[in-house]
Protein 1
Amino acid sequence: QVQLVESGGGLVAAGGSLRLSCAASGRTFSTYAMGWFRQAPGKERELVAVISRSGSTNYYGDSVRGRFTISRDNAKNTVYLQMNSLKPEDTAVYYCAAATATAGFPIKFRTYEYDYWGQGTQVTVSS
């Protein structure tokens, strides 16, 4: 069982930056691939960024590539999402999630592949 707690959301002006954190409980954090997803009102939950167990492999959604950076610190059981050049369309609830991963499939792309989810943190970008 893994419990995930996000923090760092808030209100920011367009062009600004935020850093989200997701703290995981348990001693098996390094065995999970991690992901950040977001959901805006009336829209489906979408992939933002995902990272492998070691942190050596990552992937970004098209809308955030080049602006967001995912990273993890396995010693601190924490995954981060650095968000720069924020736009109003980035406004959403951001969720972190953990997925069982293997060497052959180090990262996961779809919500149904994730086993554990945090409660979410609101990010609002004003224009």
Protein 2
Amino acid sequence: QMQLVESGGGLVQAGASLKLSCAASGRIFGYNVGWFRQAPGKDREFVGAIRWSGGTPYYADSVKGRFIITRDDAKLTVYLQMNTMKPDDTAAYYCAARFGVGYGGAGKTPSEYDYWGQGTQVTVSS
């Protein structure tokens, strides 16, 4: 059973950068990893994802050009670099994983993932 732990959240001012980490309890090679966020009173929202095979990550339009997802399978960790942050980025951020080999889904919906972290809070002040 894979366990995921997010870290790196905090309070930043608008325009600042923050880097989140998603550390897995075991190997992540072969797993697609997604990032989601959820603001109070809102549904969980897709942020971006990276496939098990690497390649170009894909992002929600709201973060495209500002957020970058990378993975380091040797370190069992996936990262979310957030730049030029805005108050609308304020939310709890979650990483999620599913075995990706042979899976062709887009990975943009929460139901596609089997494992979730507990979340880390990100607050962007104006």
Protein 3
Amino acid sequence: QLQFVESGGGLVQPGGSLRLSCAASGFTLDNYAVGWFRQAPGKEREGVSCINNSGRSTSYADSVKGRFTISRDNAKNTMYLQMNSLKPEDTAVYYCAARSRYTSGSCYNPRSYPYWGQGTQVTVSS
């Protein structure tokens, strides 16, 4: 059974940092492109960042560019999101997701991802 276990969320002050982890089990992550999404209360789920199966190609939403870094360690079957200079507007539930490396179309389309983590809450507040 394909599963993700997310960790690393929490409460942080503005300007602080968090590192989210997403460990996959039941499948080999290196055959999949992966992405991070977030959903704030009352808002639609939005793509934050994505990375291809090899890790050589990454993409970031304008709202997080220069502050967030996506990475993956295929040997550990784990993906990460390093979040620096956090702002109150980054507050949301963050989800990791995976899709086949052969899936076409925008990597920010949540409907293109069949596999999802359970979500982890990130709250940025003083």
